[in-house]
Amino acid sequence: MPKRILIGTVTSDKTDKTVTVKVERKVKHPLYGKIIRRSKKYHAHDEANAYHIGDTVRIEETRPISKTKTWAVIDRVAASKGTAVDANLDAEASTN
């Protein structure tokens, strides 16, 4: 039986060797017919801690690594755009 492969976005990289990946899919509502988005979060194994928040990654189903971790990151599809930088508002306020 082939292993499932999903594409999602990393939402958390705080734990060691683990990332949380949010996978979204679009389904048709059974009664109204409108296309709606459904999402699910998976814990995926990241041995080198190489993936960060905002990265789009491919994950593959594997043997159970821990109680909640049965997926492993294969590779990065797209890198994140970067993180937001806090502005130094104190310096701007003191000059005015």
Describe this structure in words.
The structure is a single chain. The chain has a five-stranded mixed barrel with strand order 1-2-3-5-4. The protein is built from one helix and five strands. Helices cover 7% and strands 48% of the residues. It is mostly beta strands. The chain has one domain (5-95): Beta Barrel (OB fold (Dihydrolipoamide Acetyltransferase, E2P)). The mean pLDDT is 90. A hairpin with a 6-residue loop joins strand 2 and strand 3 (35-45).
Please report the distance between the alpha carbons of the first and last residues. 67 Å
Taken in chain order, the helices and strands follow as: EEEEEH
Name given to the CATH homologous superfamily: Nucleic acid-binding proteins
Shape: flat
Number of helices in the DSSP assignment: 1
- Secondary structure category: mainly beta
Number of domains: 1
Biggest beta-sheet profile: 5 strands, mixed, barrel
**CATH topology annotation:** OB fold (Dihydrolipoamide Acetyltransferase, E2P)
Average pLDDT: 90
State the share of residues found in helices, binned by percent.
under 10%
Biggest sheet strand line-up: 1-2-3-5-4
Strand content of the residues, in percent? over 45%
By CATH reckoning, the class would read Mainly Beta
Task: Kindly summarize this structure in a few lines.
The chain has 96 residues and is mainly β. It has a single domain (5-95), classed as Beta Barrel (OB fold (Dihydrolipoamide Acetyltransferase, E2P)), CATH 2.40.50.140.
What descriptive keywords fit this protein?
single chain, five-stranded mixed β-barrel, 1 helix, 5 strands, 96 residues, mainly beta, OB fold (Dihydrolipoamide Acetyltransferase, E2P)
